[in-house]
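Researcher: Hi, I'm a grad student and pretty new to this. My advisor asked me to get structures for two proteins we've been looking at. I'm not sure of the right format, so I'll just paste the first sequence and hope you can take it from there.
Model: That works fine. Here's the first sequence with its structure tokens right after it:
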Amino acid sequence: MQKKDFQNWSKEKLLHEYKELSKRKKFGIVWEDKTEEVAEQCKTHLPVLREEKKKVISTDKNVVNHVFIEGDNYHALSVLNYTHKREIDVIYIDPPYNTGSRSWKYNNNYVEKEDRYRHSKWLSFMSKRLRLARNLLTDRGVIVVAIDDYEQHTLRALMDELYGEQNRLGTIVVVHNPRGRNDDKYFATMHEYLLVYAKNKDLAVVKHFAFTEEDIDEFRKEDDISAYNETSFMRTGNNSDRPTRPNLYYPIYFNKRTQEIN
């Protein structure tokens, strides 16, 4: 595509170009960015951490093993961007789900279901914090975000935009209530989600899962990569045999001379 030089264009030509560009369809998430008081405040004022001796978390009297920050999450993320930028390996966040049930505040006011800007407010709220969180991750870092059906679709689009669709490691379904919620009108929801993204998918490593005794017994073989098991291509369970599903059985031919499978 040839680069356009707008320097010598007339006002009428520029206005026409603007109108044509405005007609273009865009793919991605769009929302009305809402001003947030705490974010505006941090542009001119630096939050400062103050140690509370009574709340120190330590297993040794002389060594502080952990840091627990109590306060506004935007303030905390802002401070950490000065102290721990590019030093965090894993971030887990459990943000407001924006159910409209007075579960969170925006600019000191509860966001209710009737608020026509509640989705824009939520996206503005999340985008600011997710950008700060991304700055904290090491190049091999991973972020995990908990969410449910109310904003799962918008969060995924936002994460794709901020962290890159190519860095999406997966979506984990977490079953919290096998019986389902009683207040759901049509389908009883029993699960929530964990959206998992890497700062750089090529560098991230996800491992260290604990194997059960059953897993260890099943994965008996091992190669240079990991332990593994072999699974038959034969279908099992209901409608798995030839008499019940005759149209789903196909032959496999092997040519010994050419070593080809068909």
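Researcher: Oh nice, that was easy. Here's the second one.
Model: And its structure:
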Amino acid sequence: MCVAACTATEQILDLRLTLCYLGVPLGGPSSMFGDNKSVVNMVSVPHSKLHKRHNALSCHRTREAVAAGITQFHHIVGTTNPADILSKHWGHLSIWETLRPLLFWRGDPKATPTT
């Protein structure tokens, strides 16, 4: 998971740099979400101990981006994670509250988002 967080951080940094080159103003840090609480804590808490060398090497870039305020890493519970709907076997009733807003989005698609 630490390697995935490092890969996501590199992609975020690349996309932010590209947007800056195009003149797009960036407002605040980018958010990353993970369902592995230990990895989120390992990356987000500066004084947490890195137990394995390969994790330490992968996590430094992500820790650096969090410390610089470029990204924020948040924990999301696995039962409410929309990405888990397709990767695990769930019963219909257990995922319906997460799945319904994705399938039946209500709103005006022409409306501009308010900032």
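Researcher: Is there anything I should tell my advisor about the second?
Model: You could mention this: The chain has a mean pLDDT of 79.
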